[in-house]
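Hi Prof. W.,

I finally got the LPXTG cell wall surface protein prediction working! I wasn't sure whether to trim anything, so I left the full sequence exactly as given:
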Amino acid sequence: MFFQDRKIKYSIRKLSVATVSLAIGFLFAPAALGVAQVAQADELSTTEQVENKAENQVSVVSFATEQEESETTYVDTTNKVTWTFAGYDKEKIVVGKGRQTFLGSWVPTPNPEYVFKSSKAGVPLPQSILGMLPKDEASYKVGDTIVAKQPAVESVVEEEKDYVWTFKGYDQKNATYNGKRVTFTGIWEVTPRPHHVSYTFVSVTSGVDLPKFIQKKAPKDGSTYFNRTRVFAEEPTTKTYIDSVNDGTWTFKGYDAASAVVNKANVEFVGKWTFEANKYQATYRFESATSDKALPAGIATLLPSDSATYENGNSVSAKQPAQATYIDSVNDGTWTFKGYDAASAVVNKANVEFVGKWEFKANPTNAETYTPQVTEETIKVGQTPDLTDNVTNLPNLPAGTKVVDITPAGQIDTTKPGTYTGKVRVDYPDGSSTEVSVSVNVLPAPETQTYKVTYRFESATADNNLPAEVLSLLPQSGTYTTSSSVAIAFVPEAPMPVEVAVANGTWTFLGYQEVEEGSNLTFVGKWVFEAKQDPSPQPQPAPTPQPAPQPNPVPPVNPGGEQGTDNNQADRHQSEQPRKPEENPPAQGPAGEKEKQATLPNAGSTAPLSLTGLVTSSLLAGLAVLLLGRKRKDD
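And this is what came out:
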């Protein structure tokens, strides 16, 4: 903009990174990217009087993005008025010394007003209803029809007073706007909330449901009750019922309460019924399963005894005899119990009988009579298997039975993982024996892997080295050990603080922007420097030069160091020399032996950073997570 033969200065009070609009003597509030940004240019001074003449041209410069839309309405929520911008009066320009002012016109439109009233005097509306008053911030012109907005809910329960409020409508459904505020008055009708009494019959006997024919005997009450009314429970006409389905008798034990007072809610009386089932027993009988042999009298003494009682529908498991074999010296043989006709039975309104069968065999050896049961042997590489304790039913074998490991030498290779087969011999006291194979599972020995995690700070500002104040914040390196099947999560340690003031400016931590991963891991933290702004030229005495802090060099981190190594604190605060390309090459493990993943979100832009970008951007803190693990190598 220009004024012929005149000099004018302007100051911008507030700048937005998104958009800026400039005008002379008035205010714009452009909307950019969804955020209202305001810029105002005020004339500071002029060299002489400016008159409203044709040759005095004013050029208005607007800087805006393509998405910018000027705000032409303003809602005054305090006064319930919507203002609409009508434009500038180009013919009216107020000219004063050192200032020109353009006059903009704004037209007010009173918002419609909504009022809620109670239908009953002395009964105020609850806050829950008053909070539903509609709001209308639209802009109306004279002659427009305004339609009343309905409340969000038209029936509200006031729990505290036990009232029901019902919206009955407005005094007018719509109104024509004539330049004055329109008011809609809504009426809410209040009535006491009605309550009812119900009866429910339930079973208090665990596992047995109350039959529906008894539930239907519950009393019915069609009366309406209001708050604070006392109600007495109605007794059932019959209090005992025979239940042929469940095979028992139901007895009414009373309600949970003889009476109740209505307390802002319906009343329910719960009648309790108990069930007594008919009782039954289980009996046992033994029979011979060998046609030409009768059971000896001694086997009858092994019959189980069951004094328990059972109810209809119960499942009864047959009890085993005290022993499963019986030596018959008379018949020179052994009786073996072969089981019952049924392992279990369900009571069906009668007693239950189990019939056990015994089979006779003349003098079999122990090896023919007994079957050793074995379990798998599991060891790790380098351990020695012991198969003599893998016979799980040894206590049930004849007294004096012994187990001997007869696995051939070298058949089980304990130097490498794998599945092998061993062999044991079960020696019985009668001289017979049985050989049994035993599976041996040799598991791999646990493996470990050690990882080194180090930190390094670098300057993101060209020609500016990190000072000692920043390098002193460098986190401590560490060494971590994990097994092949375990992953370790690493979160880089953020420096504290993230802003460091020095004599000539401020260093700001941008985050860990780079992760270098080989057999070890390095987190590289970036710092940006912002120099102090020079003040406006003023007659000032020459400042005394101050020596700038000189950082000391820091030796590289020892790759072989362990966590907790006594590194000198001053050494860790010194500058680190730039790495040569060939230094610390990534260590590669055997193919398939281990697998690493590094997930480090970008904690800051890697593009060159300007001062404006730093001022208008938020500080980005870097977080990185490294999951280190090793896959198990299959043989």
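The two ends are 83 Å apart (CA to CA). Does that look reasonable to you?

Thanks,
D.
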